[in-house]
Amino acid sequence: MRTRLFTGLILTSCVAVWAADKVQPLNVKAGLWEVTTTVTTSGELPIPAALLEKLTPEQRARIKDRIDARKSEPARTTIKEQCLTRKQLDSGIPFSPDRKSCTRTVLTSTASKVDVRVECLDQGIKRDGTFQVEALSSGNVKGAVRFSATGGDGAINSTSTFTAKWIGPSCSPTK
What we know:
Elements: H1 2-21, E1 31-43, H2 49-54, H3 57-71, E2 76-84, H4 86-91, E3 102-109, E4 113-122, E5 125-137, E6 140-151, E7 154-168
Antiparallel strand pairs: 1-2, 1-7, 3-4, 4-5, 5-6, 6-7
């Protein structure tokens, strides 16, 4: 009797863990989307020390001037077309580029909302943040991305919000 009870508890625990790891795709259409993104940043752009060592003093000065000019810029808004595939939806991380240097952890995954934690390490720059997408309908979504990056001699924080609307079922080869 104890063996059956113990085996039942083990099987139940395994099923519960498997269910918790199962990603539920966002209930939106695959295909071509128009994505409008607004980005706000604050802080100093981290530049890896190894890269700075390779630059001439003139190159460093130009980079510093560009960084200083961007500090005074208001939030930037861009509109781009993006192809959303069934594979991206099934992975639980739609509307997010697949970067090899990043680890993604799906925190919440329902048909209407996805929350993901992202951690990246690339050329001495550590980035971490959250990525949230909410399906307003099968053809409209909204989301937010919050990131911080540290390394070299700086740290930067970035907050983005986006909306996306479905354009059509097929993506052109250039998208």
